[in-house]
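Chapter review: from sequence to fold.
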Amino acid sequence: MSFLQYFEEKKSGTLPETYRNLKREQMETRILEIKKKLGDKLFIPGHHYQKDEVIRFADISGDSLQLAQLCADNEQAEHIVFCGVHFMAETADILTSEHQKVYLPDMRAGCSMADMADIFQTDRAWTALEKMFGETIVPLTYVNSTAAIKAFVGKNGGATVTSSNAHKMVKWAFTQKERILFLPDQHLGRNTAYDIGVSLEQMAVWDPIHDKLEYDGNFEDVKVILWKGHCSVHENFTVKNIEEVRTNNSDMRIIVHPECSREIVALADDNGSTKYIIDAIENALPGSKWAIGTEMNLVNRLIRKHPDKHIISLNPRMCPCLTMNRIDLPHLLWSLESIVNGEEVNVIEVDAETSQYAIGALERMLERA
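The token string follows.
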């Protein structure tokens, strides 16, 4: 189920108009008061891509899986207000205990990549691919996917992956079966498989819109089947962006996220997960120059945090992740005040069967962490 379907089914409330008219200072004061009042019963994880106005109230910042694991470890917290997007809050709900509730301040905060693979498309694809290749395929899914997709992967013997451990998990998958179906981001799948020695000629692409395998060669040569999905933010980095940096700042290092296309990763000096990029900048020498190919809120935060380094966005015309940015101060305050008032809007609940299979996919990955 996509976050949009979930939103429609739950008929979650929309932000009351009164919150739109509050001054920033008023909202900040009320948020701090609620945090103090609820104490350890409240936990606010914030993803790296969140706005500064939101991330300042987070108890911890990190990537999606890291935050979900921290939610699970924090058994004191009864209320977890997840400042991220829908699939992240789902993962937190899957991993936390029954006495804990997970909330998403704005149910419109989704992920276009995650919604490029729904369970109906995936079931159809799996049926078609098994007819082509028999029982030679194991599915892997990026954690940037819906709970339903994680459950599908778990049910079929596969595992989740993060951008940090994708190489390890793809290698593991090849010990299980001859072929891999990689969901939902084709770029992370392609870059990872290429890095471990799978040639581009051995990679096919499944088009879920037309239920078609895109491949020109002999099907027997296929080792990796990439789902035709992508991150709308990272796909906006172009070869022209890199050429401009090389021309105007020849001594600048380019580091990008592996959700970027193969062409961009190949031309960059380095690539890695969000944490990898953050660590690379923090450990870099003063005076070093960097062009970063990832989400703009994070890039701007790194620029402010490291004034001793020259940092720019690889694409100076890049916009922040629009769906991630739906979480703002009015929605955060509304979510917190709803908890205090016993109304509890926008609760994220994953059913028991989906959770069971999704946990299987997550545990296969965590066992190899």
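Two observations follow directly from the output. DSSP finds 16 helices and 16 strands in the chain. The first strand starts at residue 42 and ends at 43.
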